[in-house]
């Protein structure tokens, strides 16, 4: 009976332990802030606090971008160094062949000089038949011609390899200079960040607050970059499959040709019908703006057109109101946003586009 009671107590404590762990984990995961909660927290910052956070965010982006550029430069430089090593080995091999054949030619010429032309003539005259005579003449002729051709080819090969090496050397030197400049820039940015962190340290307990805000924003950014490729794929699919009534695309004849107008509201309605009602495209002269309020993301850029496909070229953006650098934008658009308008324009081919107020104006011609 005592053993049974002991087992029951042990199982009871084990159950309590597992329950507490599950509650702890559930609480921990529950504490993860949503974009709306992050936006609310950031809205409570004073102007000075927001300025400090924006500067820290910008510096972090600069460091990340410079380190990526340095890594790309270093990788390219290593590749060029390897290519130079290969060229040097090839040049050495060609020079060895060249020297061997040149030495062989020397021996032939010395033999020719030592025996004299009369001996070669005597050998030719000792031919047993006319065909033998022609064969001996041909052999001598081929020997001289092939030896000359070989030396010419070796000279050309050597000159080509040397030229390639000379062409690569200044590129490597340039990359070394670039790498040095990047290292200096990273060091300088780290110094600025250290100065800012020193200032945060002087704020005592507020330092931890700013670090938490920055970590919170970075976590939200990582979630966005994981979600964004699926978003671009969905938008591409939705537009490619969209079926609109003919009046949705306004076509008119102008002095410069046939124009088809696609309103931003029409595009937004297409996405809203597929569940992306918070996504908003806004067209202004020469500009395309994409707003994603749920993710606190605003992007600006333009469309390029080719084969009835619009490719969005991002130029700037903000995340929670803070500017995104080129590195962050490149990271976000690892997968391009491409909208296939073939289904929307029907039997038309887009020659050019102009971004106007509230609409895209497409210059189109009938398919032939």
Characteristics:
single chain; 368 residues; alpha+beta; six-stranded antiparallel β-sheet; four-stranded antiparallel β-sheet; 8 helices; 10 strands; disordered N terminus
Order of helices and strands: HHHHHEEHEEEEEHEHEE
Distance between the termini: 94 Å
Number of helices: 8
Class derived from helix and strand content: alpha+beta
Describe this entry's structure for a reader.
The longest helix is centred in the N-terminal third of the chain and has 79 residues. This protein is an alpha+beta fold. The protein is flat, with a radius of gyration of 37 Å. Helix content is 67%, strand content 18%. Strands 3, 4, 5, 6, 7 and 8 form a six-stranded antiparallel beta sheet that branches. A hairpin with a 3-residue loop joins strand 9 and strand 10. The chain is built from eight helices and ten strands.
Summarize the structure.
The protein is an alpha+beta fold and 368 residues long. It is built from 8 helices and 10 strands.
Helix and strand topology:
Blueprint: H1 2-30, H2 35-43, H3 47-125, H4 130-202, H5 206-241, E1 250-254, E2 257-263, H6 264-273, E3 280-284, E4 287-292, E5 297-306, E6 309-319, E7 322-323, H7 326-332, E8 338-340, H8 342-345, E9 348-355, E10 359-366
Antiparallel strand pairs: 1-2, 2-10, 3-4, 4-5, 5-6, 6-7, 6-8, 9-10
């Amino acid at each position: 009976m005592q053993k049974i009671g002991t087992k029951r107590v042990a199982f009871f404590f084990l159950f309590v332990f597992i329950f507490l762990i599950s509650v702890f984990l559930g609480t921990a995961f529950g504490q993860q802030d949503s974009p709306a909660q992050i936006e609310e927290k950031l809205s409570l910052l004073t102007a000075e606090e927001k300025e400090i956070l924006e500067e820290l965010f910008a510096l972090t982006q600069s460091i990340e971008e410079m380190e990526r550029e340095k890594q790309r430069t270093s990788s390219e430089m290593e590749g060029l160094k390897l290519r130079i090593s290969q060229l040097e080995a090839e040049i050495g091999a060609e020079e060895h062949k060249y020297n061997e054949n040149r030495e062989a030619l020397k021996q032939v010429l010395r033999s020719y000089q030592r025996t004299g032309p009369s001996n070669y003539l005597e050998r030719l005259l000792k031919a047993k038949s006319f065909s033998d005579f022609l064969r001996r003449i041909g052999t001598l002729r081929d020997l001289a011609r092939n030896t000359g051709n070989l030396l010419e080819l070796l000279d050309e090969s050597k000159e080509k390899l040397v030229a390639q090496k000379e062409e690569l050397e200044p590129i490597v030197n340039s990359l070394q200079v670039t790498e040095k400049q990047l290292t200096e820039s990273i060091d300088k940015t780290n110094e600025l960040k250290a100065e800012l962190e020193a200032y945060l340290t002087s704020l005592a307990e507020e330092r931890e607050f700013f670090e938490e805000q920055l970590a919170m924003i970075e976590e939200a950014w990582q979630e966005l970059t994981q979600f964004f490729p699926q978003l671009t794929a969905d938008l591409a699919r939705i537009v490619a499959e969209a079926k609109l009534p003919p009046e949705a695309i306004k076509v008119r004849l102008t002095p410069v040709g046939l124009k088809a107008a696609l309103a931003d509201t029409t595009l937004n309605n297409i996405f809203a019908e597929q569940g992306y009602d918070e996504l908003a495209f806004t067209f202004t002269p020469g500009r395309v703006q994409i707003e994603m309020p749920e993710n606190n993301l605003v992007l600006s850029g333009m469309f390029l057109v080719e084969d009835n496909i619009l490719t969005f070229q991002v130029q700037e953006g903000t995340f929670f109101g803070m500017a995104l650098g080129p590195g962050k934008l490149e990271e976000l658009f690892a997968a391009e946003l491409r909208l296939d308008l073939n289904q929307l324009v029907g039997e038309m081919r887009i020659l050019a586009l102009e971004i106007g107020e509230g609409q895209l104006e497409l210059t189109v011609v009938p398919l032939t």
